[in-house]
Structures are given as structure tokens and as C-alpha cells.
Design a protein that fits this description.
By secondary structure, this protein is of the alpha/beta class. The protein has 28 helices and 13 strands. The chain is elongated and about 85 Å long. 45% of the residues are buried.
Length: 716
């Protein structure tokens, strides 16, 4: 199913998205729907591996395009962001609205949840005002039946005048009816037969505007819908209209006169802009309710005791937070134990290839300095980053996506909504924070789900206060060497996971504290209201979860890390091998940093290792060992016992280990994260602040801890 050729690129008119057509006969299908209705499952089932993702031009909202074939024709499926309405209040809703209006898709599939069809019909009715080529997909019919809900799809189709197809997205056998309906709909030329009837003053105002708009636009986009939006005076849409229909569109004398006449008519009826929006919303809700009266049948009310029992445990005041902590500790334990052996195997494979490169360099008689820079510098650091970073991400991200697929992550946001509200932030920040455990860059990207610009910025600036898996190797090694080294076997990994969980809880506490501080100083404001839907618990689709998390998250983040590890490897080799007065640049820099490091309970080697680990935190400990052993390439002793002996011989104590843990937890984000922050905020100021905040917190905590220890030692 699907084609892979991308020989012809066509830009959807003024939607900004480049549609990859193979030929002019390819059909573009827009896939719209509320969040949590199974839209992505349908997209993945239809397109399989024939899909690619990116960002909408000028936006930080992701898009996905894929291909499938139907009746011998190639269809390009565009997965629009989940939205409850086309009356845009967020970047996602603007994207969906603009593509449906100006992207000119050949057909639109609106996916609905069968168990709450009335609410979903709001989006259906708005979409039908834009296009007559709409197919309604009533998904999750199996879950609706479990609740005693039956949808008379044929009756709803008769009422709306468009195909209504029942589906169970997880069962691919239910999807051919949808694809065939969409294929037929791309050929439809008849206008919509169903329109929402608004109050009389609104209809009179529309009758003034529609003829003028029809003359100016030729009905593209739909003149009735366009008239509604002009009366709504939506600034974001007015800008899109100027871009899509020409700068002189709203300056036309006939248009201005008609718009003024229609607006005056509404004002004489006591309808201002705010009241107009309320009337439109109320009319849509009433129409959806009327449609569902004899379409939705409750055959036998079923109480979902299983969901209630789970929610009573996972979202209650008494058990909600302990359950979150235990689940976090369990995920960390799985990540630690599950990534250990693959990481060792991958490292052995990559370093064996390094030996081959060294042999090849010898056969080619390459200069030592060139071999050192390319193989011992660049390749060795990249190999280290990949072998240490890839396995934990390959374990953590699928586990994280499984929780998302099962329906637990919205419960996590629900539990943490109140603490974040106390910090004048948004509860959705909890989801971004959780994603940051896998990678802070991915967590920053995940902040796109937050509608408010102020609250999104709060989430971005504080995401690095929770440790990513790049910091886990350092944290785990120090915990195992100094605090869990006496334990053996399985108990040792549990103890490591428990102590690591405590460190993460400290990071979460700092996230709350800094979020509150920013919200009462630089980013003042109250938390905005948002809709948080708790979907039913579902059995996850393990196969698609693994594929989606590996390709969309793991490899994306790894690619950025490798890109910045290449220059880092070159710099590390130069500093370790270039000398001045018989002393390497690495040792000179470490000596320079010794006074500051001493105040923090560290030494200059540790600080320079963190600086050189800016591209990837995974190389911090190897750089420390390289400096202590006076080697010219990255080194790591083979066992925790050897590591402890080396560290103790260079003056480390348990105080040094604790200071190192604190600074590992709180210091500047890696270069990949900072690049992502700059991309999301488009501001050097906010990017610099995102680096300064955790660094200042780490330095301050280390100094306070070291000072307190020294005072108690003097008193003792």
C-alpha cells in the first residue's frame, strides 16, 4: 500500500505545506479530528511506512504526510493537528483551519469518537461549511458498543448528505470502506446540501456578504463560511485571507461596503463581535444535539467499572502521586537494565570498526595527526555518543509512547495540573516535563501542545531541570560507585533506580520553584484555562508504538546529537593533544578552573569535562577519565571498582560525588537542546536564559552543600 516516489512537489495554495505529488492525478486527503479519536491510528494504518514528518512552514507544529493507494489511484494523506474547533485559539487550530480553507484538499475525512459523537459533530459541521467533499469517519465503534452506545450511521449520512463510515481503526479490515468513500468524494462537484441555520440577524448579515464574496472568490473557499469569518473579525484569519486571496481583497470598495452594512445590521440587533461568536458556537452545539437525538441510541447503559477503578487509584489525592513515583522508578529501572547490554554490544561493534579505520589509515600512510583528529577524535566521540545514547532512548521512548497510547499521560497531566497552576503555569507542562526524561530537546519540542505563549515559554525555560537520558550514565555511575556499590545483582539496579528517582524528584521540585519564580517576575500572568480530556484506557499497539517512537523521536534526537558531536570530538582531541610548555591545553584549562571548582566541591578537570560535554552529556565521565589518565583519547575503566579507585586516587570523597551529582542534575542544557530552544523561541535572549537558569541553580546548590559540609566539619 502506498508509493515512495517524490518526484513532483506541489505547494498547497497558501497553506504553506508542500505536498509531494508523484503526478497531477494524485489526490490530497486531509485527515481532521479531535484529539484522542484514533486519527493517528488511521493515518498509520493507511500509510504504513510510506510517510514522513516535518514542521508546517513558519510554525513549530509538526505535520505528517503519507501515501496509500485506492482504486488504482495514489492518495496523499495529510494528518492535521488534533483540534476541537476551527474557530482558532491555538497554533494547531490555525494550521488545521488554514489547510482546509486554502490548501484545497480533494477530500476531507473528519474522524469522530463514536462514544461522544455529539461533541465531535461540532468540528464536522464547521468543516462542512468549508467544503462539500467531506466524509465522516465514526471511529472507536467497538468502545462505544462496550458502553451500550450504537450509532445509526446511515441515518446520520442521510441527514448530513455526506458518507458516514463506522470504523475500528485498530482493525484494518474496517478501513477499506473509508478509503473508497474518500476516493469517490474526490470526484464530487455538487455543493453541500446541509447548512447550520443561524439566528435571523446573522442570516440577514450573511445574505449581504455572500453575493459579493461569491463574485470576488468564485466560491473558493466557501463564501458562506468566509462571510462568517469576516463578521467574526478573526485577526489571524484576516492575515491568511490577505495572503491567500490578495492584499487588495479586503480593500475592495464593494467588499468594504458590504462588510460595513452587514456589521451595522448586527450591531442594530444588539450583536457585537463577542456576542456574534457566542451565537455561532451556541448554534453549532444546538445543531449537533439535534442531529444526535435519533442517531445515537443508548441500548444498555454500561458503567465502565474498570476505568473508574483505575482512575480512582491513579488520579486520587491519596494514591495518585505515589503511583506516579513508583511508575517513574519502574521505568528508570527498565531503562537502566534494558539498555545496559545493548549499549555494551553497540560500543564493542563501533569500536571494532574504529580498529578497522586505524588499520586503513596505516595502509594509506596517513599522518598521525590526521588519524588522531578523524578517528581518535571525531569518530571515537561520535561512536561513544551513539553507543551510550541510543540504547536508553530506544528503551525509554517506546515505554513513554506506550503510556501515551494506553491513556496514562493525560492522567499524569491531571495530577500535576494543580501544582503547576499554583506556579501560574499550565498542567500540560507535565507532559513536556515527562518527555524531557528521555531527551530535553524532545521535551522542548513537546511544549508545542501548550496554547498560551507565556506558559509555553515557561515550560521551555524549565524543561532542562529534569535530567535527560544523556545525564543518566553519569548519575547512574556515581550512584553505583559511591552509594550502591555494596549491593549486588538485581538489588543493586533497584537501589540505583530508587536513588536516581530521588534525584529526579529534586529536579521536579526545582522545576516547580523556578516556574513559580519566573511567573511572578519575568513572565507574570495567571494560568490559562484548557481542556484536558481523559481518554479511556486502551490496549496499546506495541508494533506501531515502537516504530513511531524510534523514527519520530529516538532517531530524530540522535541525529541532532551526532551533528554536534562531530565538532566536539575534534575539539576534545585538539585540547588533549596540543601542548603549551609541555602541558596540554586540557590541563591548562583545568588548572584555570580549579579555584571556582573548589568552591563547588569539585576540581577543574570536572568543570572542563562538563564544558567539553556541552554537545552531549554522555561524554562527561570519559573526558574526566581521559584527563586523570593523561591520555589523548576518551577513556573509561572497565568496572565500577576501577572507576572508584581512579577517582579516589585523585582526591574524590563522598562530598565530591554529591556535588558532582548536583551539578550533573543542574547545569547548562546540551547543544542539541539549546538549538531546539532557539528554533522554538526564535530568540537568543530566551535561549541564553534557558542555559543560565539551571547553571546558576547548580553552582548555587553545590556551593551551599560544600560550604555546609565544611562548616560542620570545622564544628565537629
Amino acid at each position: 500500500m502506498g508509493l515512495t516516489s517524490h518526484s513532483t512537489g506541489t505547494k498547497a495554495l497558501d497553506s504553506g505545506l508542500v505536498i509531494q505529488r508523484q503526478n497531477a492525478e494524485d489526490k490530497v486527503i486531509a485527515l481532521a479530528g479531535n484529539p484522542n479519536v484514533g486519527k493517528s491510528t488511521i493515518f498509520n494504518s493507511l500509510t504504513g511506512m510510506k510517510q514522513h514528518t516535518g514542521n508546517w512552514p513558519g510554525k513549530t507544529v509538526a505535520n505528517a504526510q503519507g501515501r496509500y493507494t485506492c482504486e488504482g489511484r495514489t492518495c496523499i494523506l495529510v494528518d492535521l493537528p488534533g483540534t476541537y474547533s476551527l474557530m482558532a485559539h491555538s497554533a494547531e487550530e490555525e494550521i488545521a483551519r488554514n489547510f482546509l480553507c486554502f490548501g484545497k484538499p480533494d477530500a476531507i475525512a473528519v474522524v469522530c469518537d463514536a462514544s461522544c459523537l455529539e461533541r465531535n459533530l461540532n468540528l464536522v459541521l464547521q468543516t462542512m461549511e468549508i467544503s462539500s467533499r467531506v466524509v465522516v469517519c465514526v471511529n472507536l465503534t467497538d468502545e462505544a458498543e462496550k458502553k451500550g452506545i450504537r450509532i445509526q450511521t446511515e441515518l446520520l449520512s442521510q441527514k448530513l448528505g455526506v458518507p458516514v463510515i463506522p470504523t475500528v481503526a485498530r482493525n484494518k479490515k474496517s478501513l477499506p470502506a473509508l478509503t473508497h468513500a474518500l476516493c469517490r468524494m474526490t470526484q464530487r462537484t455538487e455543493p453541500s446540501v446541509y447548512h447550520v441555520r443561524y439566528p435571523e440577524p446573522v442570516e440577514k448579515a450573511l445574505s449581504i456578504l455572500i453575493p459579493v464574496l461569491q463574485e470576488k472568490t468564485g466560491g473558493q473557499p466557501d463564501s458562506r463560511w468566509l462571510a462568517l469569518r469576516l463578521l467574526d473579525a478573526d485577526d489571524s484569519l484576516l492575515g491568511e485571507m490577505r495572503h491567500g486571496l490578495g492584499d487588495d481583497f479586503l480593500e475592495d470598495k464593494n467588499m468594504k461596503d458590504a462588510l460595513k452594512q452587514a456589521s451595522d445590521l448586527l450591531l442594530k440587533s444588539g450583536i457585537d463581535t463577542e456576542a456574534f461568536r457566542d451565537l455561532i458556537t451556541a448554534s453549532l452545539v444546538a445543531e449537533a444535539e439535534k442531529l444526535c437525538q435519533d442517531v445515537v441510541l443508548m441500548e444498555r447503559p454500561v458503567y465502565q467499572f474498570r476505568d473508574w477503578k483505575l482512575d480512582h487509584l491513579l488520579t486520587s489525592r491519596l494514591f495518585g502521586y505515589p503511583a506516579m513515583i513508583l511508575l517513574l522508578a519502574f521505568l528508570l529501572w527498565l531503562t537502566i537494565t534494558g539498555a545496559n547490554y545493548p549499549s555494551q554490544a553497540l560500543a564493542a561493534l563501533l569500536f571494532r570498526f574504529q580498529d578497522l579505520l586505524t588499520a586503513l589509515s596505516g595502509r594509506l600512510h596517513a599522518p598521525e595527526w590526521l588519524h588522531g583528529m578523524l578517528v581518535l577524535g571525531i569518530y571515537r566521540v561520535v561512536a561513544w555518543v551513539v553507543s551510550v545514547m541510543l540504547p536508553p532512548m530506544a528503551v525509554f521512548f517506546p515505554l513513554f509512547t506506550l503510556l501515551e497510547d494506553m491513556g496514562y499521560l493525560p492522567r499524569l497531566a491531571y495530577n500535576l495540573d494543580k501544582p503547576f497552576q499554583c506556579c501560574h503555569a499550565c498542567g500540560k507542562q507535565a507532559l513536556c516535563m515527562a518527555m524531557g526524561f528521555g531527551c530535553n530537546a524532545a521535551g522542548v519540542t513537546g511544549c508545542r501542545i501548550i496554547d498560551s505563549d507565556r506558559e509555553r515559554l515557561l515550560a521551555i525555560l524549565t524543561n532542562s531541570f529534569v535530567p535527560c537520558n544523556g545525564r543518566f550514565p553519569t548519575l547512574i555511575a556515581l550512584i553505583a560507585i559511591f552509594f550502591a556499590g555494596m549491593s549486588k545483582g538485581l538489588w543493586s539496579s533497584f537501589l540505583c533506580a530508587l536513588l536516581l528517582t530521588l534525584m529526579i524528584l529534586l529536579g521536579i521540585g526545582m522545576t516547580f520553584a523556578v516556574t513559580w519564580l519566573l511567573s511572578v517576575t519575568l513572565l507574570k500572568g495567571m494560568p490559562s484555562a484548557f481542556t484536558l480530556e481523559l481518554p479511556p484506557y486502551r490496549r496499546p499497539q506495541v508494533g506501531s508504538v515502537i516504530v513511531r517512537s524510534i523514527f519520530d523521536r529516538t532517531l530524530f534526537v540522535l541525529g541532532r546529537a551526532v551533528a554536534v558531536a562531530i565538532p566536539a570530538g575534534l575539539l576534545i582531541w585538539i585540547m588533549a593533544n596540543v601542548t603549551a610548555g609541555g602541558t596540554s591545553l586540557l590541563e591548562l584549562c583545568a588548572s584555570f578552573l580549579d579555584p571556582l571548582a573548589g568552591l563547588m566541591g569539585l576540581d577543574g578537570v570536572i568543570l572542563i569535562a562538563f564544558l567539553l560535554g556541552f554537545p552531549a552529556n554522555e561524554i562527561v565521565m570519559p573526558v574526566i577519565f581521559m584527563a586523570y589518565l593523561s591520555q589523548g583519547t576518551l577513556m573509561e575503566p572497565g568496572s565500577f571498582a576501577a572507576m572508584k579507585t581512579l577517582l579516589l586516587s585523585h582526591g574524590w570523597t563522598w562530598m565530591t560525588a554529591v556535588s558532582m551529582l548536583l551539578f550533573s542534575l543542574f547545569h547548562w542544557p546540551c547543544s542539541t537542546t539549546l538549538l531546539t530552544i532557539h528554533k522554538e523561541t526564535k530568540s537568543l535572549k530566551w535561549t541564553a536564559l534557558a542555559a543560565l537558569l539551571p547553571t546558576a541553580a547548580g553552582i548555587l546548590l553545590c556551593m551551599l552543600f560544600t560550604g555546609a559540609c565544611r562548616i560542620f566539619a570545622l564544628i565537629g
